[in-house]
Recover the amino acids of this structure.
């Protein structure tokens, strides 16, 4: 029997405004070649200019993964020929990456695991060859050429696909949280190469690996790993050797197919790019970026589930949505008596529900943290029932402000006054004599009916607990 060993290389596209070495934009889905300037086209005489923001984003990633930020890092030319690489080389980092020796901790089915991040280096993306557009030709789109990538490489320390997926989800969350990558897998902003080998159970020497390139969905990654475990296992069972290969995952069949063997591996003839100076990173810059770092997802999770007693599920939704999270913190700060759990409930159910239903981004809703804070306070101090609070919320969504004014203007104050309630209840009981008799004879199910009728009569303003108590008394 065999154990599986996996190491990952993830390319994230950094979300800068422009390319790594040119001023062309990097917006996805634009007309072919409309975002390729002279530098991306490699016209003679052009020179690359490093994008400072990409360097800052790489540093953020390094700080978030407790890595070493290399104060001097060097760009190198990785030489190979391909039609969508007009320079004939890709500018990457070889021996001197910007980030090395980091770690990422994640949760695999309730157990914490840390994996060593060997390096993370900056490099430019290649263009795109499109083979199925024109009859007898291949088409080249250079919009992607020069887009800024950070390649994040782990040690071979994953021993199941569950661990791989847990790491990738944590990484995906982290880079979005740091606002350095949009994480869009369909558009190729987060691409995964899986290196995978088998070795006899409980041995330590690594087996020969295959690399499955550019898989862009978590489900396909799981499938590809499963397929490779079976394929390599069958080869080893027969006493044959696995050939070191680059393979492709085929979505239609769920199989991996060979792309090239190690024998065909290219010698990239890396050498320092003479067009670019080594990058020097000062301690001042490091300190400045460190001071602007948002709290990390794991720290937020601990705070939200610990101090604020939210469920892990709710906490995770807030962490994944910066606008919601910031709103949450602001709103509980504005409350008379902060009630984080209730606040999270309002934000994640009624308020997010309204945004989703109307396809409005949360940040475009016309609500303010102060108003929502007061709304939740008014439920807590029993001025509003949950029903009338929802009505107030509707007015807030329409752009009205001042919760107390809305309550007065629309007469939504919860009525707990026994006299007023008794009068409404008596009328309802009179209106439905048959049901009243049934309730009296012990048919408790009718209690809900009567409470509902009273609430309807009072436009939701009755205090439901009081209403129920008085109905019981009068019956
Ligand atoms: P290369 O430079 O040839 O791409 P690296 O040593 O940089 O090789 O490794 C690339 C990736 O492959 C890393 O994520 C590493 O963890 C992984 N890897 C290396 N050897 C193995 C192996 N035997 N089994 C599984 N993964 C491996
Ligand atoms: Mg590699």
């Amino acid at each position: 029997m065999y154990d599986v060993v996996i190491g990952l290389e993830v390319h994230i596209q950094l979300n800068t405004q422009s390319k790594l070495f040119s001023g062309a934009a990097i917006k996805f889905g634009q007309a072919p070649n409309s975002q390729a300037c002279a530098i991306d086209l490699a016209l003679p005489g052009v020179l690359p200019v490093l994008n400072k923001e990409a360097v800052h984003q790489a540093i953020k990633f390094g700080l978030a993964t407790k890595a070493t930020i290399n104060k001097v890092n060097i760009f190198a030319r990785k030489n190979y020929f391909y039609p969508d690489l007009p320079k004939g080389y890709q500018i990457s980092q070889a021996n001197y990456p910007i980030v090395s020796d980091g770690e990422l901790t994640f949760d695999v089915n309730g157990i914490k695991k840390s994996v060593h991040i060997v390096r993370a280096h900056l490099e430019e993306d290649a263009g795109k060859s499109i083979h199925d557009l024109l009859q007898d030709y291949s088409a080249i789109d250079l919009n992607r050429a020069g887009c800024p990538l950070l390649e994040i490489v782990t040690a071979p320390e994953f021993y199941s696909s569950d661990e791989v997926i847990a790491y990738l989800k944590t990484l995906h969350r982290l880079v979005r949280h740091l606002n350095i990558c949009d994480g869009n897998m369909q558009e190729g902003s987060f691409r995964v190469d899986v290196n995978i080998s088998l070795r006899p159970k409980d041995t330590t020497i690594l087996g020969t690996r295959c690399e499955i390139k550019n898989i862009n969905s978590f489900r396909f990654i799981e499938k590809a790993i499963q397929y490779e475990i079976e394929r390599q296992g069958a080869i080893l069972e027969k006493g044959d050797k696995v050939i070191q290969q680059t393979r492709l995952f085929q979505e239609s069949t769920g199989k991996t197919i060979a792309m090239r063997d190690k024998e065909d591996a290219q010698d990239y003839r890396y050498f320092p790019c003479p067009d670019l100076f080594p990058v020097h990173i000062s301690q001042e810059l490091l300190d400045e970026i460190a001071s602007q770092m948002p709290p990390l997802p794991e720290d937020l999770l601990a705070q939200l589930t610990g101090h604020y007693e939210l469920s892990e599920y709710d906490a995770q939704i807030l962490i994944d949505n910066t606008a919601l999270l910031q709103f949450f913190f602001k709103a509980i700060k504005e409350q008379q008596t902060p009630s984080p759990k209730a606040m999270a409930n309002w934000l994640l159910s009624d308020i997010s529900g309204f945004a989703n239903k109307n396809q409005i981004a949360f940040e475009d809703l016309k609500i303010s943290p102060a108003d929502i804070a007061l709304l939740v306070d008014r439920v807590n101090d029993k001025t509003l029932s949950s029903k009338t609070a929802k009505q107030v919320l509707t007015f807030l969504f329409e752009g009205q402000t001042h919760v107390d004014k809305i309550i007065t203007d629309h007469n939504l104050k919860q009525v707990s006054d026994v006299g007023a309630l008794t009068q409404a209840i008596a009328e309802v009981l009179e209106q439905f004599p048959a049901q009243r008799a049934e309730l009296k004879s012990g048919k408790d199910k009718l209690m809900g009916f009567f409470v509902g009728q009273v609430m309807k009569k009072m436009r939701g303003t009755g205090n439901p607990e009081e209403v129920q108590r008085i109905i019981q008394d009068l019956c």
Summary: The chain has a mean pLDDT of 94. Residues 9 surround magnesium ion (ligand 2) (CB under 6 Å).
